[in-house]
Amino acid sequence: MWWKSFQKNIIVGFITLLPAIVTLYVVQLLFSVIDRFLGQFLTDVLKALRILKIDEGSIYFLGVYTPFSERILGIGFILTIVIIAVIGSMRRKGKNQYLFDNVDHFFRKIPLANYIYSSVEQMINAFTQERSSFKKVVMIEYPRKGVYTLGFLTGESKGEVQRRTQKDCINVFLPTTPNPTSGWLVLVPQEDVTELNMTVEQGLKFIISGGVVVPPDKAALLIDECGKIVEKNISSNEMVINVNRRKDD
User: Fold this and answer.
1) Total count of domains within the chain
2) CA atoms within 13 A on the CB side of 120
């Protein structure tokens, strides 16, 4: 019995630590690759400018001894962060837009790479631009009664569509999994739509993950907390009553 319990503990512990392990591994891998490439390049540039000097396997920065031998650890990663910040500033201010258009055109012309580039771009749009058009996360019975599908409220039905339905309908976008940028539009009577408390971002994560990433139910947590508070108050009142009775006795 103890061996089976131990095995279950190992599995649960591994699953619990897996997200943190994968995150640390990816960060460490990115840091190593970026710093190894740009760090060595920047070290050679600084050596050419005589800012760095290598003497007997040790690096001297402006004449000051450093504990590094091949390159200054982390300098390539810091340079990458600075470059990304500069590009972000240019993008936000709308400067040199032609450069971004040329890069976009370049990647779309490369076979195979254009599919990867387009897919990543669609995923980013799902969390940025398209998220602003989604107002709420809703749930409807689709494709049949008793089976529920998550969708996003995009607005109220108007014009000819609303007139011919003869009901107060709302527009609901039903995304596909795992790519929420594709899907279809359905017009659903308002009484058949259930609005959820989760945010649009939580709804997107839930759909993209195929239901693996489940948003917390804030209402259930609130009810549970309120129930504990009431139970605690009841217990406290009982204690007060018991103490009073003892004093009276």
Assistant:
1) 2
2) 8
Decide if 79 is inside a domain. Answer: yes
Domain check: are 81 and 143 in the same one? Answer: no
Q: Is 80 found in the same domain as 22?
A: yes
The answer to whether 138 touches 161, Cβ cutoff 8 Å, is: no
CA dist., res. 169 & res. 157, Å (int): 6
Q: How far apart are CA 116 and CA 24, in angstroms?
A: 24
| Average pLDDT for 30-37 | 77
Better-predicted residue by pLDDT, 215 or 37: 215
169 inside domain? yes
CA distance 46 to 79: 13
Tokens of 114: 């254009």
Dihedral of the alpha carbons of 39, 40, 42, 48, in degrees to the nearest 10: 160
Non-local (6+) Cβ contacts of 193 within 8 A are 138, 139, 140, 153, 170, 172
Q: Which domain holds residue 156?
A: 133-208
